[in-house]
Amino acid sequence: MAKTKSFSPVKLICGIIASNEKVFNVAEDRLIKLYGAIDNKSSFFPFNYTDYYEKQMGKNLKRRFISFEQLMSPERLSEIKTCTNTLEEEIKKEFHAEQRIVNIDPGYLTASALIMATTKDFAHRIPLQKGIYAHLELLFGRKQVRALSWTYPDYKAEDYHPFFLEVRRIYLAQLKQLGKDYL
To answer: Which of the chain's termini has less CB crowding within 10 Å, N or C?
Structure first.
C-alpha cells in the first residue's frame, strides 16, 4: 500500500479588485490581520478585460495582488475563500455601499502552479468543500509562465507574470530554508 505524506506548504496570494484606493487599503489591512505580513505587493493593474464586475462595483476598476510571508497548508484554501467572501460583505457595510465594492480572490502559488479559489463550478474546477472550487490558473517553468485554455484573460496577459515569478522566487527560497524535503 502506498504511504501518504503531508502536502508541502504553499504561498498565499490574494487578488483584490476595487475602484477606490481606500477600499484597497481597508481590504489589505484586514487580510494582514487574518493572514499575517505581506511580503510582496504588485502595482495596480487596470481591470478592463471584462465588464463582469462593473454593474456591482462601478467603472475604472483596478486589480492588485498581494502575497503573504507565512506559508500555509493548501488544505486551507476553501476556508480562506469563505472568509474573504465574508470580508467583502463587511467592507461593503463599512463603506455603507448598497452593492459589493471589493472583490477578494484568494489562491496559492506552488513551485509549479497558481491555483485560485472560486465559487463558480465548471468542468475543469475541482470541488474542495462548502461550495468552493480550486481553479488551476497558471503553470510555471523556470523563468516562464504558461496560461491554459481556461485561464482568465487578465491572467493570460503578461503584465501579471513578473509579479508571480517574483513571488515564486521568494517561495522557492522559503522552501529551501525549510529543507530539501519540500523541493
So the answer is: N
| pTM of full prediction above 0.90 | yes
Q: Which of 122, 103, 96 is closest to 55 using CA atoms? A: 103
Q: Which residues, other chains included, contact 69 with Cβ-Cβ below 8 Å and sequence gap of 6+?
A: 36, 37, 38, 39
- Type of residue at 58: G
Under 8 Å between Cβ of 73 and 10: yes
Q: Looking at the chain, how many residues does it have? A: 183
DSSP assignments along 128-162, one per residue: EETTEEEEEEEEE-SS-EEE-TTS-HHHHSTTSHH
C-alpha cell recorded at residue 123: 468542468
pLDDT per residue as tens digits for the range 58-97:
889 999 999 999 999 999 999 999 999 999 999 999 999 9
- Secondary structure of residue 43 in the 3-state scheme: coil
